[in-house]
Amino acid sequence: MAYSEFTEKDYELIQRDFALLEASAQKRCAGEEEMDLVRRAFHFANEAHKNVRRRSGEPYMLHPIAVARIVVDDIGLGCKSIASALLHDVVEDTDYTVEDIRGLFGDKIAQIVEGLTKIKNVLDTGDKKTLSAVPSSLQADNFKRILLTLNDDVRVVLVKLADRLHNCRTIQHMPEHKREKILSETMFIFIPLAHQLGLYGIKSELENIWLRYKEPAAYREIEAKIAASVHEKGKDMDAFVRPIEEVLTKAGFRYELKRRIKSPYSVWRKMKVKQISFDEVYDLYAIRIIFEADKAFGETERDQCYQVYTRISSLYRDKEGRLRDWVRNAKPNGYEALHCTLLSPGGAWVEVQIRTRRMDDIAEKGIAAHWAYKKDGYSSERNSEIEVWLSQIKEILANPDVSSLELLDIIHNDLTSAEIYVFTPKGEQRAIVKGATALDFAYLIHSEVGNRAIAAKVNMRLVPLSRVLHSGDQVEIITAEQAQPKREWLQFLQTRRARSIVMDYFRDERKKNAELGKKMLEERLSALGHTTDNSEVMRRLLFHHQLTTAEALYVAIGLGGIKLDDLEELVGKKSAASAAAQPAQRSRSWFPWRSSQKSDTAPKEEPAAASATLGAHYVIATCCNPIPGDAVVGFKSPDGTVTVHKKTCPIANNLASKYGNLLVVPDWDGISGNDAFPVRIQIKGVDRIGLVNDITRHIALDMNVNMRKLYLAAEDGLFDGYVEVLVHEKSEIDRMLGRLKSIEGVESVIRKEL
Asked: Which CATH superfamily is domain 218-375 in?
C-alpha cells in the first residue's frame, strides 16, 4: 500500500463505485434502517482508508467496495455481510480496533470482521517467515483458521471468498512470486471450497483467472477457439432454441432461457484429463431453462421439470443414458436440476439444464440461497447436504490433536474426491468418497455408530465392514453395545475422518504406540544403515509425512497409520523437497538461476524469494516433467535444493498451499542447451500406407529430433498411438506439433503427460 493525497478524480471514483453498490444493496436490504447501516459502514471505512492506495495506484477503498458488491451480487448476502465486507480491512490496516467496530456496528459485524482480520494476519505473516529444518505450515494454519470461523459464522468464509475473488481479479499488480502463492492457494483451497458451498459462478471465474496466469498461451488459444466456434455455430444454436421457446410458450410456462458456453478452464481441464484436442470437446454448449414453479404443471418441482423435459425431448433426439436427475438426488452442495442431452439440427449434441427459479438461485449463489429459502419456510424436496458437511468439519476442528497440515489434507480430500451416492435403510441419500467401505459409511453417520459396528448389510445381504461400497447401494450398519474399534480397521478404512476417529480411540495408549513405532522404525532403518539419531533422515520423514515432531511420527507408525513400505526410497534420496513432491525425481546439473521475468504490468522490483535460488542445485519433478519454455515454479528444500514443477502441476499447487514461504520463481534462461528432456506426443487419425514412414521422417530427418519410442495401433481404418522424443525446449515441441498436424490422415496431435 502507498499513501498520497487523493485527487478530485479519486473521490469521484469512490462515489461512483459506492453508488453501484447502493443500487445492488437496495434489493437485499429490508428498509432504510438496513441501508443506513451499509452507508455508515461505507463512510467509516472510506475515512479510515483515506489517501491509501493499492499497488495499482487506485484508492484502496475501491477494494472493499468491490468485495461488498461480490457479496451482494454474486453470493446474495444481506446488510450485515455487506457492511462487514466494507469494513473487512479496517482493523488490520488502520489504528481502529475490533472493539471500535463493535461499539459502532454491533457484535455480529465485529465478529465477522475479527474473523477476517485473523485470516489476513496469518497470510501476511507467512510471507515474512524464513526457511527452517521442518518447513512452516502457515498456509495450512491459515486454512484451519478459515474453517474455524464456521463454528462462529459461515459468513466469514463467504466474505473471504469474495475478498479472494477480487484480489485474483487484480492479481496482475502483484510480483510474480506473490502471484504464484495466491494462485496455488486459490486452486488448492478456495476453488474447492467455492464448489462445496455451491458458488459455481465464483468457482468458474477463479478457475479462469488461475489458467490465464498459469498457462497464458493455452488460455488465449482456447478462448479464441471458443469465440470462433460460437460465431461459426451461432445460427445452429438459434435454430435449436427457437422450437423450444415456441413449445414452452404455447404450454404456458413462465421461463427464461440462457445459453451457456463452457469456460476456457473447463475446456482446458477436459482436454488434459481426457487427453483430447479442442475439436474433440463436444459439450461446448449448454442451454439452461429456468422456469417459475407452478403446480398447474405438477404437484412437485420434480414433476414440473419432467413436464418441461417431455415437451422439449419430443422435438429432438434424446441421447440415451445422459439423463441426470439432480432433483430427486441433489448433489451434496445442494445443486438441483434435470439434465438431458439433445441432438441439434446441425448434428451437435447440446446439454439442456432444466431448473426452477429456486433451483437456479441455489445453483448460482449456493449456501446463501439455500439458507435464505429455508429461512423463508421453503423446504426443497431434498434437504441440502451442505449442513451435514459443515457439521463434520466442526467435529474435526473440535479435535485439538489434528494438525493444520493434516486438517488441510482432510478437507482438501473431502472437497475434491470423486463421490458415490449410497442410501440408508430409510432411503436417505448420503454422499461418500469413491472406494469407501461399509465402516467408512458407519462413521459418516456418527462416530458412535462406527465405534460400535460389527457388520453391515448392503442391499439386504450381510457383508463384512471392509466391503467396498458402490453407487446406489443401500447400507445398514449392525452394531453391538459392547463393541469397540479394532486396530486392524486402519488397514481398510479409506476416509480420513474415520481413520482419525479410530486413531483417536487408541490415543490413550499413545506412549505404548510411540515406543512400538520407534522400535519398528529403528529396525527398518538399521537394515538400511541408518538410525533415528540421523537428523537428515528424520527431517525427510517428517517432511514427507507432513508431521512436526518425531513422537507424532512414532505414534502414527505404531498405530499402523503410516506404512514403512517406501522407507528405503525416501531415505535414499538427497532432497527432502524431492521426497515431499514425488517419490522419484530426476536430478540434472548445476546452473545459476536468473531473476524471474516479469509481466508488463508487474512491478519491476526483484522478488526477494527469487534471489534465494541463485546458484542452487535443482531437480526436475517427474510428476509433471517440465521442459525449458514451460511456465515453472520451484520449491526450495532445507538443504538448498530447488525442485522445479510446471505451474499447473497439482502437486505444485498442493505444496504452495502449505509451504508458500518455500516457493521461488525460477526461469529457464540459465539452462545449458545440451540437456535433453523426454516428451510424449499423442497422435490420432485415419490409417493409410506409409503413415509411419511420414511421421518418423518429419521427426527424425526434417526436425533432427531423437525418438525414444514409437507406438501406433490401427483398427477399423483408424490409428491411435504416441511417440516419445527428446527435446531441448518447448519451442521444438510446438514446431513438431505443427509439422505432424500437416501429415495426411493425422487428425489430432497433442502433448501428453509422461
From this structure: Beta Polymerase, domain 2 (3.30.460.10)
